[in-house]
Amino acid sequence: MLISLLVALLVVTDAYRVSHQRARIGCTLLHGAVDDSWPYGCKNTVKWLVSCIVGAAFAPGVSHGIGPMSELKDQSMVLQDVIFNVNDVDQEIKLFQETFQDTCVLLHSETNQKENYISSSIGFGPDTYKKVKSFIPGISSFTENGAHATITLHSPTGKSSNDADLKTGYEKGSGLQHVKIGTELLRLSKSLANGANIKYAYGWVDLDTVNEIPLQIVVGIARDPLMQATLMVSNLQQSKDFFIDKLGMKVLPFPLARTPGSEFEQPAPPGSVYVGYGVDTMGLLLVETKNGAPIQVGSRLEGFKIVVDDKIEKNLLPEATSLMFQDGKMKSISVNSPDGYKFVLQPYSDFEKTARTTSIRT
Description:
Layout: H1 2-31, H2 45-58, E1 77-85, H3 89-99, E2 105-112, E3 117-123, E4 150-156, H4 163-166, E5 176-183, H5 188-193, E6 197-200, E7 205-208, E8 214-219, E9 226-233, H6 236-246, E10 250-251, E11 273-276, E12 283-288, E13 301-308, E14 325-326, E15 329-330, E16 333-336, E17 342-347, H7 348-354
Parallel strand pairs: 1-4, 5-8, 9-12, 13-17
Antiparallel strand pairs: 1-13, 2-3, 3-4, 5-9, 6-7, 7-8, 10-11, 11-12, 14-15, 16-17
């Protein structure tokens, strides 16, 4: 009973706050200005309700940024996806699913007939930015709600029935060091059984999957286990300027799955910079190479995907998104970092067309 009352209070409080934000905007549109008196310059409840409607119509999403979830509040962009080229997508999915005891699963899959590959996305929860209906705040696990980052596996396909024709040699490269995963459930015996190469396993685990995807696994707690990706860069300041000025990221605290100083979690290297769009979404740790040595991105890593709010004014988005606006609409484009890392920028409306909107338990 007490839990139900607390949940109801949270919902009512959030709705009250959101309605007042929309009323403020509605009053501005209707009357040209607002004051700080209740309810924002409107003399009666009828005008306040009208202001709410006007504010909702002309400023949807004002309270939470991209999508309605509070985790994405004040974010107009999200680093959503790390994309890899692999030869055996089924074995890769099996490795993730069994290693993390069914907490990481296949979210959705599609075939690209034009470029002859299958695209399969895995994650630790739904990737939609909308609230999942079955999620109950304060009761359900975070894995039941949306806004989870993904790893997408591109696997070659074709008309030939000869498997050898579909096998392609991908270069691991020297750029991506690992994707960091913070998890409470881990079975390394299943990793080994599915072809993983464990390189380090004292405190935390460094391993390459069967398709040579580098992972760093920490036994700990994170809202989304897909925490961050570590990239080597040849010029730290130049890369930092690109991610902040061109892609609109900001410098953030390095995310941890355990308490600070724990010997069971590798700290960020001295001089490195962590950038991202928010503390509850995936980010990038930038580490400069010795003497500015050039980066070989390789072909194993296809790139990253950033989802961009297409309901926000153009002038509120960073420079790199300007090319997305074509014929009055936003379209997907790709840009490269100074070291050649590829970033696909996708409109939010397009992203939600394929996003998982149901619990991974169903």
